From TrEMBL:
This is RNA polymerase sigma factor. It holds the Pfam family Sigma70_r2. GO terms for biological process: DNA-templated transcription initiation. Residues 121-148 form the HTH luxR-type domain. Keywords: Sigma factor, Transcription, Transcription regulation. The keyword Methyltransferase does not apply.
Amino acid sequence: MKTFAGLHVHEIVQTYSDTLIRIAVQQTKNMPEAEDIVQEVFMTLMRQKKLFDNETHLKAWLIKVTFNKCKDYFKSSRVKKTVPITEEMTFIAKEEQMVLPEIFELNQNERVIVYLHYYEGYTTAEIADLLEMKVNTVGSKLRRIRMKLKNILEEGS
């Protein structure tokens, strides 16, 4: 059985599926498409010949590939009109459920940064590396996004 960073594929799927599904859903707003994207990510992993230095490197690779597959999804002809947020998507955030609808009001690039920072706990430097951006750019975008979310939340109150 194939292993990456010392983990068997079934362990990787079990460990990272929820994270990758959350990323794909918050990007696509569509659970079936998110599941398809994550399946494509794992199929890409199976074809991967590259070895990973450690589990952190593997996780970063999985997240980056998931975001890239989401970008491909938006470029493809599979994209339909935006699907409304449904009850089946509420698993995405536990305590954060009150904020989830407001996060979907952000554009795709903003949601990526918010998700990686607040849901996955990545630093601005790590996000910059994952998204191939400058650290200062990620920091300034994060500040602007916080202000935008604050305004959205205040308008909704």
